[in-house]
Amino acid sequence: MLDRHLSPAVRRPVAALIAILASCAGLGAAAPTALPTPAMSTASVGDCGTLTFSGSAFGYLDNGTLSAGFCVGLRSVRRINVAYDKAKGGSTNIRLGYQQTDSSGVGIKRPVYASALTATPGNTAFKTFSLSLPQGCYHGVMLNTATRYQYVTKVWGEC
Length: 159
Hints:
The structure is a single chain. The protein is of the alpha+beta class. Helix content is about 15%, strand content about 45%. The longest helix is centred in the first third of the chain and has 18 residues, at about 10-25. The chain is globular, with a radius of gyration of 15 Å.
């Protein structure tokens, strides 16, 4: 737990670093890909309409699964679908989004978040981002608005 006496300007970067380190160590954000893929989020993040589904990325948390699906058209990313399947625990206020990264998963641009919503156990929180981004590496992100911890999926794309 971060020291509550630190200013928010210091806590946020430290929390982001902890989330990155946890995902690298497989402790919180991203775990081995051998875990089963949840059927509910796969269907929703893979919905690309007339665009081409290019792939998905997952992050496994103790209380659910964060997933992102990437849809492309005309050599650019045109849609990113982000879902959080909350399996257990209490209701949580979150913001879903995406972030451009380097090949190791470190953000090279600021995350883009949708407005806050409430994730409840047994349900899926879902957001679609329609955009035109260059090919590159991206991951889905989820921000817990109470703790300010950010969770990420594995990296998708070619850097």
